């Protein structure tokens, strides 16, 4: 046997395969950037490749794709501002039972068909079906939806389209349905393509693998699994002209994204680790922007059972944790500290400004409260964490653990992944005392907090992982969500937040900022809206 | 020879089915529900129990495990490998999509490792106890000892960021509409080199040890005494025989290579099976995990067979 062949033959095979997989030589091998004319390419980074491109959930990896090829019905930014390119107005009747959506005219699908109320109605119909959409729970309460889903009727009685520009939704009872819908960020799908598709067939429908008809600034080209999704400018976009001829959404881990930002292979990344922000800001051609985020992360969740039932123990924990120190040490200052231990980024009108305790860092007060509660410092508590090791959340939890140990509360942190934590939360909630919480959009409406604290929302029926229960609070949530008088609604929610402030069901540790790193030449980037206005982005003149 | 290969392949069938069964059961024992694993914390907050039950039912997770196993084996026997929970596409399609990039990376890395490892090992044996011998031993030990994730990140920092010689990841330049073969090779070099470095160490050590034994054999002395040129003696007679044990080492290293791919493909955003494995484990995509374990087992079995056949081809004294 020829010995050279032993090593060289496989290498030659590899090169041949590569050559076979390649097209003709293209002289344009630059990696994007501010090229001239129509050959402009933008490359975005995202760490989470989506499993599919169905628009019926809120997977983080789908967001830039849908923001580019479809149009959301309505959405709310992190400052609480409502936006819609599709709707001219959205109104709730005085009795809180009817929501009317009036559409802008002029928006078209890429095949020239007008975007009409029929598209919106079909999109809502899909999202009301729990077998199709993860959002169905949030959007429940539309008149006739249950009858339609059970097959008793062929249409949803409470979802009508009086004309091409109007959608009317009738609700079974006054609720915050419109706010819940706005928080969900629903992308409209084409009725003339999907109108006849049974709900059972939607998951496998070819529309969602090629998007032959879309209505956003870009059109779908292809998805190279494990690498990127490629889009191209849509000349049929009726709201303007997209700034780039081609757009790539690359799925890569954070470290690689940072490296590609530095080398210029990546132009935009909005999952920047706060501890990397200063270093990234020093890259020659990269700019960092940040703004207050909408969700809490991490939350030191507490199980509502012994030995944590006494509210003074939970209050002591809130006093024991140096949240300002954690904000600086773990989040590099890119965060807000909710010292009143309520999600204070809920709309301002709902937040109490008196009669609440400020849980500033006060170890002595924590010890005093523990003494009053006869706390046994021999108690060993278990906390389940699913943070990425070494990441800001992980660092924050470790500091909090040390802070609490200083006052005599001993936690052991067990690192698990999220599916494992979910399973233990469901099957053996008594096997641990604390859990890491994260996420939630509190900027739209305070009622979202109900999902995390109500007695009927215990995990897995809802997101109340700690099995906290306060019936007085539940009554307030119910009253607040059905109250149509805004002043009275504000009063009810303020009372609800006062209870949360005193009960301390969980410790809301940090609200991280949205940090966006982008090529300094990129015009139109706003950390409040992130990729949601991607159609307006372009290279600076 | 053919009957030996046939016999080995026949024996492999129950072995592979055994691996299938064990991996299916172990994967099912992973904690965590696949449906919830696909959902963000925010979605978990608002998802209705009906939605979760419906998804579980669609994926067949509401059935007893033996029913799931029987249904899955039925699909395997028909040439399918089940349906991905995450992507709702046939697993065979997903594997087919990813196996090409993995093969390119693995073959290139293996080739680089073999060429460098065999050359270093040979010269280390020929120059036994010289500075070159010590240097190659120390270097190969270091290559084995440094974790490949660290090596990968260092390589990106040095060669991509500081020197700007290679791209940081991916298989091609995205801005080019039809990237050239050269562009693809350019993207391949860094991940292949990093992967190769972890494999080189054992090749150097085994080649050196084997070569030291061979060059002391009588037939080498005879060849030299007959005036055969030294390089021909070394490469024509010595190395040929010294490489026989190396074929077994290559086969043994296939699982190490597959593990290395998992890390390297993630670091270099290489769209291969390794990255798919990582994503599938995190997403509790049982059918994909089991299929990848199965395919890895097939590779290991085939490479072991190939090692035996190659050894027989290299050494006529070995009778299969």
Summarize the structure in short.
The complex is a heterodimer of chains A (541) and B (320). Chain A is α+β, with helices and mostly antiparallel strands and 541 residues long. In chain A, 31% of the residues lie in helices and 19% in strands.
Account of the protein in words:
Chain A: One of its GO terms (biological process) is peptide transport. The complex is a heterodimer of chains A (541) and B (320). By secondary structure, chain A is α+β, with helices and mostly antiparallel strands. Chain A has 18 helices and 22 strands. Chain A folds into three domains: 1-70 and 216-292 and 514-541, 3-Layer(aba) Sandwich (D-Maltodextrin-Binding Protein, domain 2), CATH 3.40.190.10; 71-206, Dipeptide-binding Protein, domain 1, CATH 3.90.76; 296-512, Dipeptide-binding Protein, domain 3 (Roll), CATH 3.10.105. The longest helix of chain A is centred in the first third of the chain and has 19 residues, at 3-21. Chain B is built from 14 helices and no strands. In chain B, α6 (91-126) crosses α12 (244-267) and α7 crosses α9. The termini of chain B are close together. In chain B, 43% of the residues are buried. The chains are: A alpha+beta (541), B mainly alpha (320). Chains A and B meet through α1, α4, β10, α9 and α15 of A and α2, α3, α4, α6 and α8 of B.
Looking at this protein, list some descriptive labels.
A: 541 residues, alpha+beta, D-Maltodextrin-Binding Protein, domain 2, Dipeptide-binding Protein, domain 3, 3 domains, five-stranded mixed sheet, 22 strands, disordered N terminus, B: 320 residues, mainly alpha, MetI-like fold, 2 domains, membrane (chain B), ABC transporter permease (chain B), transmembrane helix (chain B)
Category from helices, strands and their pairing of chain B: mainly alpha
Strand residue percentage of chain B: under 5%
Shape of chain A: globular
What composes the largest sheet of chain A? Answer: 7 strands, mixed
**Would you tell me the overall average pLDDT of chain A?**
88
């Amino acid at each position: 046997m020829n010995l050279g062949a032993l090593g060289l033959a496989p290498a030659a095979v590899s090169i041949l395969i590569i050559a076979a997989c390649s097209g003709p030589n293209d002289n344009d091998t630059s990696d994007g950037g501010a090229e001239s004319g129509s050959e402009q390419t933008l490359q975005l980074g995202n760490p989470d490749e989506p499993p599919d491109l169905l628009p019926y959930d809120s997977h983080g990896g789908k967001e830039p794709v849908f923001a580019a090829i479809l149009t959301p019905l309505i959405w709310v930014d992190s400052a609480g501002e409502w936006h819609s390119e599709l709707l001219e107005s959205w109104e709730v009747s005085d009795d809180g039972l009817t929501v009317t959506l009036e559409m802008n005219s002029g928006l078209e699908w890429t095949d020239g068909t007008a975007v009409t109320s029929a598209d919106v109605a079909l999109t809502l119909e899909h999202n009301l079906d729990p077998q199709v959409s993860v959002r169905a729970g949030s959007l429940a309460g539309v008149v006739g939806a249950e009858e339609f889903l059970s097959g008793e009727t062929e249409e949803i009685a409470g979802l009508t389209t009086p004309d091409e520009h109007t959608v009317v939704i009738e609700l079974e009872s006054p609720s915050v349905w419109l706010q819940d819908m706005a928080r969900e960020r629903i992308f409209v799908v084409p009725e003339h393509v999907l109108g006849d598709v049974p709900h059972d067939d939607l998951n496998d429908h070819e529309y969602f693998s090629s998007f032959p008809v879309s209505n956003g600034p870009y059109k779908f080209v292809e998805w190279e699994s494990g690498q990127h999704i490629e889009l191209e400018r849509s000349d049929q976009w009726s709201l303007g002209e997209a700034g780039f001829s081609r757009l790539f959404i690359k799925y890569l881990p954070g470290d690689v994204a940072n490296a590609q930002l530095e080398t210029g292979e990546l132009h935009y990344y909005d999952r920047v680790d706060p501890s990397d922000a200063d270093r990234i800001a020093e890259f020659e051609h990269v700019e960092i922007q940040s703004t207050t985020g909408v969700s809490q992360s991490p939350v030191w969740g507490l199980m509502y059972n012994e030995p944590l039932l006494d509210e003074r123990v939970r209050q002591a924990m809130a006093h024991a944790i140096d949240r300002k120190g954690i904000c600086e040490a773990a989040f590099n200052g890119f965060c807000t500290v909710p010292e009143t231990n309520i999600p204070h980024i809920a709309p301002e009108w709902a937040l109490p400004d008196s009669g609440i305790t400020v849980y500033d860092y006060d170890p002595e007060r924590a010890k005093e409260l523990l003494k009053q509660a006869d706390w046994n410092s021999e108690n060993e508590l278990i906390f389940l964490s699913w943070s990425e090791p070494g990441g800001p959340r992980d660092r924050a939890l470790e500091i909090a653990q040390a802070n609490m140990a200083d006052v005599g509360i001993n936690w052991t942190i067990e690192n698990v992944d999220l599916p494992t934590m979910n399973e233990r939360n469901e099957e053996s909630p008594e096997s641990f005392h604390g859990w890491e919480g994260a996420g939630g959009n509190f900027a739209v409406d305070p009622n979202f907090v109900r999902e995390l604290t109500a007695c009927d929302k215990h995990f897995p029926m809802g997101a109340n992982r700690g099995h906290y229960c306060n019936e007085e609070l539940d009554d307030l949530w119910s009253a607040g969500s059905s109250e149509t008088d805004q002043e009275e609604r504000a009063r009810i929610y303020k009372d609800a937040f006062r209870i949360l402030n005193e009960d301390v069901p969980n410790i809301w540790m940090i609200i991280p900022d949205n940090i966006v790193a982008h090529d300094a030449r990129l015009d139109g980037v706003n950390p409040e809206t992130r990729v949601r206005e991607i159609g307006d982005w372009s290279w600076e003149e | 020879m053919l009957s030996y290969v046939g016999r080995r392949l026949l024996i492999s069938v129950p072995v592979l089915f055994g691996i299938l069964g064990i991996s299916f059961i172990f994967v099912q024992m992973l904690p965590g529900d696949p449906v919830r694993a696909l959902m963000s914390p925010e979605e978990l907050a608002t998802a209705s129990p009906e939605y979760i039950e419906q998804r579980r039912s669609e994926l067949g997770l509401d059935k007893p495990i033996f029913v799931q196993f029987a249904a899955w084996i039925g699909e395997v026997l028909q040439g399918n490998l089940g349906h991905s929970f995450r992507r709702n596409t046939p697993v065979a399609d997903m594997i087919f999509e990813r196996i090409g990039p993995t093969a390119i990376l693995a073959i290139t890395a293996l080739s680089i490792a073999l060429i460098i490892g065999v050359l270093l090992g040979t010269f280390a044996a020929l120059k036994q106890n010289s500075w070159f011998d010590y240097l190659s031993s120390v270097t190969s030990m270091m290559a084995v000892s440094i974790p490949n994730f660290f090596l990968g990140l260092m390589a990106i920092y040095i060669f991509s960021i500081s020197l700007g010689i290679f791209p940081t990841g991916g298989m091609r330049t995205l801005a080019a509409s039809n990237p050239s073969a050269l562009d693809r090779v350019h993207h391949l070099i860094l991940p292949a080199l990093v992967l190769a470095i972890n494999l080189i160490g054992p090749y150097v050590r085994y080649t050196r040890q084997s070569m030291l034994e061979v060059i002391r054999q009588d037939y080498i002395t005879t060849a030299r005494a007959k005036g055969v040129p030294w390089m021909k003696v070394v490469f024509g007679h010595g190395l040929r025989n010294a490489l026989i044990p190396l074929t077994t080492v290559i086969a043994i290293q296939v699982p190490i290579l597959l593990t290395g791919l998992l890390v390297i493909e993630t670091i270099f955003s290489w769209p291969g099976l390794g990255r798919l494995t990582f994503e599938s484990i995190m997403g509790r995509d049982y059918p994909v995990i089991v299929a990848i374990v199965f395919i890895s087992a097939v590779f290991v079995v085939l490479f072991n067979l190939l090692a035996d056949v190659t050894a027989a081809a290299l050494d006529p004294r070995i009778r299969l």
